Predict the structure of Secretin/TonB short N-terminal domain-containing protein.
Amino acid sequence: MNSVSKRLAMGFLASTTLPLGVIVPQAAAAQGAQARSFDIAGQPLEGALLAWMRQAGMQVGYEPGDVAGRTSATVSGTYSAQEALSVLLAGSGLGYRQTGSGAVRLVRAPQGAEASPGGTVLGPVRVQGQGARSANSDVIETATGPVPGYRATLSATATRTDSVIRDVPQSIQIVPRVVIEDQAAVRLTDVIQNVSSVQLNGTAGNRAETYSIRGFVSARYAINGFPLTSGMDRPEAFFDLANVERVEVLKGPASVMVGLSEPGGVINIVTRAPAKEFHFDGSFQGGSFDFYRGEMSVTGPLNASGTLAARATGAIQTSNGFRDGARKSERAFGAAALRWQPDGLTQVDLTADYVDQKVPFDRGLIADDDGNYVHDARTYYGENWSTTGAEKLVLGLAAQRQMNPWLMLRFTGRYTDALVTDSNAVDLQGIADGMVRRRITNRTEDSKDLTMRFEALADAFTGPLEHRIMAGVEHNRGDFAFWSARANISSIDMVEPIHGVTPTPVATVNNIYDYEGRNWGFYLQDQIALGEKWKALAGLRYDRARSYTWDRLDESETPTHDNALTFRTGLVYQPSASVSLYASYTQSFQPQQGQLVDGTLLDPEKGEQYEAGVKLDILDRLSITAAAFQITKQNVATEDLDNPDFSILTGEQRVRGLEIDLTGEILPGWNIIANASHLDAEITRDNTFAVGNRLNGVPAFSGRLWTSYGFSSGTMKGLTLGGGIRVVSKREVDLDNRFSIAGYETFDASIRYAFNEHWEVSVNAENLADRFFVEAVQGDNNLYPGTPRRVIGTLRARY
């Protein structure tokens, strides 16, 4: 090393692909004082410090010259982290001091003296951290692992580093697996409704979910930080919850983290990882509409040393559904994960999951020009041969290595191969004389997608400041082949539909095209601790997006070439360990297809958000996030009125909102997760729709409350009672605001009894009052009705 590099000692942040925790500011003192077992042999001091970090779950910063040539004392036994470090440093002439962000920094004796000034010292980070422990649970929380109870305090979604939620200057909500099980959720939508400002946008004909976040439609969600296939404008299949550890929603533009995206936010689903101890859980469910589901997951070590661990998860589900005349729904899901940890510095994860579904194609209900629609969720305008099917395989690889005490590198990659087939899918074309006009579409969508990321991560000390630095490069390539054929079929009565149209006519090919996308992203992020009370975040990303569309019918080619520089920044002020005040500015970037009348390609959509809020931790039990924000989406393509086959870029849409989310434990055994939001979503510039019109499908007010209480003693020990309410106000059917779709309230309840630590039985009832409501509004011919009263019984085992 030269004289400059000798002043650098680098360690890198734990990977978001690992269940490795981070010692966080509010938990640092308690974690450091907690007694635990240490076993560190006498050795060169630098290596001993690395072992201490792994076993204590804390970080150390130091000058390389201070530790060079020194050896450590042996540490063996039960100590607090500080006691173990004092023993390790005995006789070395070094001491340490606590830093403002929950780490320690070595200083020359006497202990407490100031470190040598000058230079930049990059210190080893939280390697193999122990995470944050709930005050009322033995589960130790990590940023990607199980959550002890309803309340999560760590996340890797917002920054792709293990971060404390209260340190992130942006609203982020987490729904852990325990909530999913308590509510007996069977859809991703059931989970998402626990988060403010998120609504189901539609299901693409009952194929997969798309959502509206803070008023803007987000067609793709992410799994373990990877957005779904870039070549698709919607997911390929419904997401199965069997392998879900937690669902996280980052609000507002997130292009710096995930690349091409809409400005409302991103939903990130974190899957279950292998564990070093054996664990099995399985359940069987049965309920209304001939719903049956079985799922299981088993995990544990594959060798005596525990360096190799695996998890296998599977689920099978069938249902006749509540739509009269529709075919049965069937889904099979399987997932496997393998984790190799040959030492404390290396980890490799291999994952695979597969889903095969066959469900009825269903556009929902339809409204006439006067806004009238049938108020019966069971009314179905398709036929029992109208089917949409999907097969999807996803393979993942994640590898990281801490090369030495000053360097960690990380690679993650994902490959997706999916085929969607719509067989005689019945679309709704309008209403004439009380009859719903229909057509069928046969369609195939064949997609392949590969995404790769390479990142380096570091903690840096610059004088009194601490930095979490991440630099990376990302490449995505997506290929998509589309084929469709259509034909009209007979109309059906709007109020009393009579099914049984056979045979179906021969469809005529109407569209064949191939799509190819190639995207590069380069990004840099710095999380800065400015002493004990201030934290800052800054991120920068450059995206280079290229796509080509070949129309195979008219033999034309449409290329798009877009580049964008997006930015995010924010500041957090923490006057106490339980209060965080924050403000942030973030941007988004999303290419779009189409062109102006002169042949010029459309500029990409751009979004920006201003947000301010407060995050409160109450008695280490409850977390509250309240936020105020404004999101503006620019370059919205609108129709060229003089040339209908082309577009112009005059559109701008704006959403201003207030929201609050609460989650945690009110009293021991009494859990709650609740939210409420108010969204003022309107068109602010357009040549087609009136300025001031509301964005369609976006309620002005929405909220959800769920609470449960578990008895831990007495004759009712093992019994848990729960219930909740969901409220959504009216929504506009389209951007013309021709008419509104009524809002709704639904009530849910549950009762669960645990026979012992291994077996429990529960009954959950959804929409107790059996009220009709429209859950998703995508247009006057895409009104998706909510589920009527549904009761589901669950038998669950855990070992």
